[in-house]
Amino acid sequence: MVSVDVRGGLGLAALCLLFPATAWASCEDVLPADETSSTAKRDLTAADLIQLREIGDPDSAVFNGPSPFAVSPDGTRIAYIINRADLTTNSYCRALVVSGLTGVGPPDIVDRGGELIQIMDVQRGFYLPSGATRTIVPSWSPDGRTLAYLRRDHGVTQAWVAQADGGSARAVTRSDVDVEAVAWSKDGSRLLYGTRKGAAAVQAELDREGQSGWLYDRRVSPEISARPLTPAAEALDVSAVDLRTGAVMPADAAEQAAVERAAPADMPVDPEAISADGRKAHLERPDSSPLTPARLVVTNGDSSRRCDAEACAGEIVSLWWQGASVLILRREGWAKEAMALYRWRPGAARPTALLRTTDVLHGCVMAGADLVCTREDSRAPRKLVAIDTASGRMRTIFDPNPEFSGIRLGSVTRLRWRNDLGLEAWGDLVLPPGHKPGEKLPMVVVQYHSDGFLRGGTGDDYPIFLLAQRGIAVLSTERPNFFAAAFPQLKTWYEINAANQRDWGERRSLLSSVLTGVRMAVDRGDVDPARVGITGLSDGASTVAFALINSQAFAAAALSTCCMEPNTTATYGGIAWAEWLRGMGYPPATRDSPDFWHAMSLARNAGRIDTPLLMQLADNEFRLALEAFGALHEQNKPVEMYVYPDEFHVKWQPIHRRAVYERNLDWFSFWLQGREDPDAAKIAQYRRWRAMRIGALRPPEPVPVR
């Protein structure tokens, strides 16, 4: 059990001295100064994108994460965290704020300060750092006067409380390990908090083991660290803090359950809602396959009612009870490009449609008769809105980024297509501001989701509107459904992944979708087919590698992660990953298997790949790229790799994000437009790239060791 080092006699005043609230002078603009803008439009900058004020998960394609909003007990206010990157300090500005729901305008700051809190993924039974931002959801006290929340300072996340009127904020835990979740006791006198089960003991045991050497086993992922990973633990150690005396005591069973409900789920779960009279609205599947569309069912004791209408099945994002009816928020339409809100009264033949939009709605919560959500579209970052559930009309409560109304952005046109398997897909074609129809432009493909505001694709490494501002068209693509969806007999995600991998079926499907979208963009008359580039992170990076091997469509490429290769996947990925891959049909490293790797390995195909390739990788993943980079470099191919320190799958440091943006912009401008930035600091960069272009980067002759 991890306990707070606070004795019964230590009061809240002493706690405030131990943990003073931090106010960062550089974070005074965590809220906008005003919401007015000039009628004159200006150009977009990298800082505009990197320093956006965020509410909730920055990834607009995440529809099943927690809502960032907590509604007050009286339903008149919501609390949430605003997050903004700060390039000057390479850190983040964070503020806990409260917005009233009856008016319009900026929220009130309750607390300011703290560090970015990141998600820890669970893969193959272990925690892996991802770099992605975790959504922190505040919790209102039963009397609506105080908020509890998580805040990270000096590398450790603690439980904090703050007066909802902004009177004071303070830490109430002093844990050696991260606090994962907070909740309130029923009477509001105690704050409940949870840490991962035995987390301190696990780390202490790893330290002791290291004294005589860590056993290299399934716990170790070499591309991340030699230190064994921490096994994932479902249970939490839960304690309670008396907010009057500071005394720490064990939590009872009900309190343990309350904290575990507040903890973020390791895996996405289907939505459900419980009515005031105990009826449960939830989703059911006719079989155990996670790809089978789920359908809305309402149960009341032993009885149940199923909604058989089309609008009651498929990708349902959220459910709420409102009186005797269920509200349904659903993704629908061509490749799920639209969102729709419905009302269904159990027993009715079909629900009533209230709202349908191609805008993206995130984090919706019920507040009185309204749904409170964030709303964004391809050319506008998120705003806080209220949706009238009687009429479906929306009104804006707060715009955290009013500056964007004064920025000139390129045009966006939605393209829709089917790939060669008949799977629906779409993409957003972005053209430069002031583009003249018929003017042939180079184009860059950005993958692999295109939901909401078009920032930089999945992982946010390829700034779409900045590319357009440089005169490069962009096709931001939304991937089609899984290739394995054609096999309804598959019952687990492991089986689905194995089917996707077989004969590279998923890779072929995705490449077909990208190439179809490129052809559609070219056929419109604005894109030069000889000057098309492609980019990607994670699954998108695998599509890039497959495209460079199996097509001749791309004149330049950039990767944020790399690569699936015969040797490195089975070595630097570690024992657990190697076992997982072999279970899906990958050959072992000790078998050559040229037929298997011919379609996917950059290293095995290095001699025939001439597309200029830029790799900008995290230091905890770059080892997986060494086999591909080494082979391409050995073959004198135009390849360059950069490694960013203290980074993960998604790069989180603001200065690194700016460097990645800038180099990707330079790379595609150079290879697709023949342009060079005159900045004197980039002389060496362009000297290397020009040498690559003429094939002059010959490796030195080896010097024999005597």
Helix content: 10-25%
Q: Are there runs of 5+ residues with pLDDT below 50, and where?
A: 1-25
> What separation lies between the terminal Cα atoms?
60 Å
Number of helices: 14
Q: What structural class results from the helix and strand content? A: alpha+beta
What is the approximate shape? globular
Approximate strand percentage: 25-35%
Write down the Rg.
Answer: 26 Å
> Biggest β-sheet: count, sense, barrel?
8 strands, antiparallel
Total beta-strand segments: 35
What do the pLDDT scores average to? Answer: 91
What keywords describe this structure?
706 residues, alpha+beta, eight-stranded antiparallel beta sheet, eight-stranded mixed beta sheet, 14 helices, globular, disordered N terminus
How would you sum up this structure, described in words?
With 706 residues, the protein is of the alpha+beta class. 20% of the residues lie in helices and 31% in strands. The protein has 14 helices and 35 strands. Strands 16, 17, 18, 19, 20, 21, 22 and 23 form an 8-stranded antiparallel sheet that branches. Helix 8 links the parallel strand 32 and strand 33 (556-559). It is globular, with a radius of gyration of 26 Å. The termini are far apart. Mean pLDDT is 91; it is low at 1-25.
Topology:
Elements: H1 12-18, H2 46-50, E1 53-55, E2 70-71, E3 77-86, E4 91-100, E5 108-112, E6 118-123, E7 126-133, E8 139-140, E9 146-153, E10 156-163, E11 169-171, E12 179-184, E13 190-196, H3 199-211, E14 236-242, E15 248-250, H4 253-262, E16 273-274, E17 280-284, E18 294-300, E19 303-306, E20 313-322, E21 325-332, E22 338-344, E23 352-357, E24 360-367, E25 370-377, E26 380-388, E27 394-398, E28 411-418, E29 424-431, E30 441-446, H5 464-469, E31 473-478, H6 493-501, H7 505-523, E32 527-536, H8 539-550, E33 556-559, H9 568-571, H10 575-583, H11 594-597, E34 613-618, H12 626-634, E35 639-644, H13 654-673, H14 683-693
Parallel strand pairs: 30-31, 30-32, 32-33, 33-34, 34-35
Antiparallel strand pairs: 1-3, 2-3, 3-4, 4-5, 6-7, 8-9, 9-10, 10-11, 12-13, 13-14, 14-15, 16-17, 17-18, 18-19, 18-20, 20-21, 21-22, 22-23, 24-25, 25-26, 26-27, 28-29, 29-31
